[in-house]
Amino acid sequence: MQDSKGMPSSSTRHKKPSEELFHLMINHLIGKTRQSIRLCRSLLPSLCLELRIVLVITVLVPARLVRHHNIC
Questions:
Q1: How far apart are CA 60 and CA 21, in angstroms?
Q2: What is the mean pLDDT of the segment spanning 56-67?
Q3: How far apart are CA 62 and CA 56, in angstroms?
Q4: Residue 41 and residue 45: Cα distance in Å, rounded?
Q5: Within a 10 A sphere around the Cβ of 72, how many other Cβ atoms?
Q6: Which pTM value belongs to this model?
């Protein structure tokens, strides 16, 4: 009886460190993703501005050049 009770407890003891490590890794990853989300939110306005500038350069400028060439 005592041996059978002792064996499950010893097997759970062996599992616990790996489970704790697994949970620590998950918590670390969650923390990193939250950090990156916060960083993205703080950078979002400036990124939107940069994206608008890039869109203007890549879309509107060539379109105007094409129109100019069609007129000429």
A1: 53
A2: 77
A3: 9
A4: 8
A5: 5
A6: 0.36
The number of CA neighbours under 13 Å toward the Cβ of 17 is 4
In the block, tokens 């990124």 appear at: 47
> Residues with Cβ < 8 Å from 40, sequence gap 6 or more?
47
Identify the residue with better confidence: 36 or 69. Answer: 36
Q: Which two tokens stand for residue 69?
A: 């060439």
- Nearest-angstrom CA–CA distance, 42 and 14: 43
Whats the size of the chain, residue-wise? 72
How sure is the predictor about 69, in pLDDT bands with cuts at 50, 70 and 90? low
Residue that has been written with the tokens 């501005």 in this structure: 49
Greatest Cα-to-Cα distance within the chain, rounded to the nearest angstrom: 98
Structure tokens at 6: 């002792």
